[in-house]
Amino acid sequence: MSRLSGFFILSILVNLSSVYGITVITTSGKTFENVTVEKDTDKELEIIDKNGIFIRIKKDKILKMVPDSQSPTPELVVDESVPTGPVTSPSNTNSLPEHSLLLSQSVSNDGAFQGSDLFGERQARRNHKHYKDVYESYFLTSSIELLGLPKQFKLGMTIMNPLVDRTNTDSDLRLQSTPGGADQTDIVNKSLASGSLLYDPTQVRTRKEKNGLPDYLFTRAMYDHETRLGVFSAGFLFINANDPIYVMRGYWVIGWKPPVLEWLNPQFSMNNKMLNDYGGVFQGTHNYRLSLSHEFFKGEKFRITPSLVVGYADVNDNVDRKKGVSDISPRLQFDYLKFFFAMNMMYRETPSLVDNASYTPSDGIYADTNQNDGKVIDPSKVFGYANQYILNQISTNSPNELVKRELIQHYQQQHIIHSIFFFNLGYTMKI
Question: What is the rounded end-to-end Cα distance, in angstroms, of the chain?
Answer without folding.
Answer: 35
